[in-house]
Amino acid sequence: MPLEGEYEPSSQQWVRDQVEQYEKSRGREANTLRDTGLPIAIFWTRGVKSGKVRKNPLMRVAHAGRYAMVGSQGGAPTDPAWVANLRAFPEVTVQDGPDPWDGVAREVTGAERDEWWERSVTAYPSYADYQKKTDREIPVFVVEPKQG
Predict the structure, then answer these.
(1) Of the candidates 48, 42, 59, 52, the residue with the CA atom closest to the CA atom of residue 103
(2) What is the pTM for the complete model shown?
């Protein structure tokens, strides 16, 4: 069952519009990053302070039924807000197509992070440029289907 609770749309209009169109079309529309043609998925998290449901379109990086969530924020000096949310509440809902599913995210490090980072850069080459723009190591989370 998808994350429940009050939904708080993004403060960014383009994010609100993309999520709304994606959900309305059950993933048939608004399923790429703007004009790039590169696929995205919608990740639902819970706000650490508000407790409200947040929805973020992120690059689709999938492998063997698992998905990466890359906290790049375009190479900004700070993590996107959803990173703190995920560290506090690792339960997420993933929508990649018509039907959302429940997952649990965990931050990956070491060789596992390197492996997922390579997959992420392959899916979206700009991640490599974003890492060069910032002194922080861009966090990578892996979302696996929730058991039970």
Answers:
(1) 42
(2) 0.95
